[in-house]
Every structure is written in structure tokens, then in C-alpha cells.
Amino acid sequence: MVKTFISLLETTLPVMTQKQQKILQGAIRVFLQEGYVKTSMDRISSEAKVSKQTIYSNFQDKEGLFKALIERLTIACFESIFSTEKLHEKPEIFLRQLAEIYLTKVADNPDYLALLRLIITESQNFPELAKLYNQTVVQRGRKMLSQYFISHPELRISDPEAMAQIFFGSLVSYVIVEDILYGKELNYLSRDRLLDSLINVVMR
Fold it and tell me: Is residue 164 a contact partner of residue 146, using CB atoms and an 8 Å limit?
């Protein structure tokens, strides 16, 4: 089971070269300025100061580039928690650490929040963008966590995939409400209260 977690991360996230990192740094600036639809490879090439052919050879096309970008802002942050050592932690400890990684390393990243806003804004006119995020982040995260639940039968979870959706879905909706819909200004709910209740749902 441990090999399954590690292989999921390794096949999804190969080691990134400095040039690829440079391209992604340029790309995110353009995506956030222009939006996904209006962003051109010429503009990214100019911003990243590399040839357009270099971008194509590393990421194939704009969709591949955006996919790599959201992987690095989300899935890559979970590499440490899905390591061999962490997987043997008690579930209540593991789940809290997992949630805290999302709420700090991922959701506290201004680039992630800006991209999430971009995806939500453009999803109506460009549904493929939302589907790309769903496939790249939501479905993979759900798969990894459901496999973790399966590897811990003592939790007696009858539907691991649904519980994984409840867990991650609660975290994502919390971030949307608090950070994008101005929940912090209206009726703030602390992260600790959310995590305590969420972990209790899984552990009961």
C-alpha cells in the first residue's frame, strides 16, 4: 500500500528542472494577469524569457502547462505527508497533519488562491479548465486519501472514497467561504474548530 502512495506522487510529479521552474514562474504571472483563455504561449515565452519551442518541448501545450502549475501548487505539497514514515502515524495525527498542510502550505499561498478564483471565474465559459483542476487535484487527492483509509481497517469506514471526498471537500469549501467569499469578515470559523469536528467524523 505504501508503494501505491509513493508511485502516485512519483508518476504525477517528476523532478522539475530549473528551466521548467522558470517557465512555470513566468506562466503563473501571465495566467493571473490575462486569465486562462486570453493567455498566449507567446506572452508566456516573453515573460519567462525562453523560446516558445522550449515551452512546447517541456509542457506540450497551454493545458499541459496549466496542469503542471496546479500540480506544483497542490499535489506537490503533500509529498512529505504521504511518505513511508508518516503513513504509519496514528490516523488522528496523520489526518490533522494532512489538513494542516492543505490549510497552510496550499491554501495560504496567494498564487493558489488566485488560481482557484481564476478557475471558478472562467469555469462557466471554459468548463474544460474546471475539469482539468478536478482531474489533476480533486480526483487524485481523493484517491490517495481513500487508499489510506483502506489501509486502516480499524477506522471501519464503509465507503473510503466518499469519506475522502467529505474530508477534502470540507477543507476546500472552508477556504472558499473564508478566503474567497469573505467569511473571515462576516462570521469567522476557526481552523481548529473545523479540524476537531472533521477528524471526529472520521474517527467515530
Answer: yes
State the Cα–Cα distance between residues 8 and 79, nearest whole angstrom: 10
Q: Residues 58-75: pLDDT tens digits?
A: 999 999 999 999 999 998
Domains held by the chain: number = 1
Minimal CA–CA distance to 70: which of 117, 3, 126? 117
Complete DSSP assignment for 46-74: HHHTS-HHHHHHHHSSHHHHHHHHHHHHT
- Whether 7 shows a pLDDT value over 80: the answer reads no
Are 142 and 161 in contact, with CB atoms under 8 Å apart?
yes
String of DSSP letters for 1-43: -HHHHHHHHHHHSPPPPHHHHHHHHHHHHHHHHH-TTT--HHH
Residue 13: which domain range? 2-203
Q: CATH number of the domain that 70 lies in?
A: 1.10.357.10
> 51 with 112: CB under 8 angstroms?
no
Q: What is the pLDDT of residues 106-148, one digit of tens each?
A: 999 999 999 999 999 999 989 999 999 999 899 999 998 998 9
CA distance between the termini of the chain: 24
